[in-house]
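explain this chain.
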Amino acid sequence: MAEKVVSGAETLKRRQKADVKELLMKIIFIIAAVAFIAAVAVICIFIFAQAYPAIREIGLFQFLFGTHWWPTIDEPQFGIAPMIVGSCYVTAGALVIGVPIGLLTAAFMAFYCPKGIYKVMKPATNILAGIPSIVYGYFGLRVIVPMIADIGGGSGKSILAASVVLGIMILPTIISVSENALRAVPKNYFEGAVALGATKERAIFRTMFPAAKSGVMTSVILGLGRVIGETMAVVMICGNSAVFPDSIFDGVRTMTANIVLELGYAEGLHRSALIATAAVLFVFILIITLLVSLIRKKAK
């Protein structure tokens, strides 16, 4: 009887210790969540508070749709329309190059790749994701830019050069996420399509990809987010001309490049206008994040 009482007391102590540990972990998780939310809130408040004076003085319409960026003249003009167009061109070019290659590579790794080759390709994809952006930029400057200069003339620093390099940079994201999405689709989808007479390729592209469309779209949108936010590689190879381009061989200036090129010496309204450019970029990234959330919600 005494042994049962002792055993019951030990069990009670263990439960109490477990409850204390659980309470401590909950507190730690809450603190981490609050710190994260506070960090995001502080960044948002800082960006928009610093951007507001420029938006108020320049005017939102003039700032977004103005065609001239002349911050150093007597009557400065701050229009970021050329930078928005340049960012859109570079982003579209990167997606045109990176998305088809990434999706086809993901399909190969999920359905065709032999185990021996897969053991090489998977780590290579992870390594590609870990390469610093400035290394991509240097590669583009030394390899891609001279090739484009030989083809299209000029310096080679252009929309096409930036699109090629950024297309390569987003491959790891698209490949990894799309492959995981394809592997998550039940195998009986594929087997059922083949049993009904579809070829392997038709079963993959007409059955597996539609079934994994939420994951595939998420990979594309995540790649899009990296392209829009990329700075160092773009600065090195895009030409940095704040004008509307006439062809893919012309140089452009993206919003991120505009910020990093001028923020070091900017003062007053000029500095506020650059922060306002960051705010516009922040809104673009926010829209992309919301799209990812909607896609995941729809998938669930």
About this structure: The longest strand covers residues 69-70.
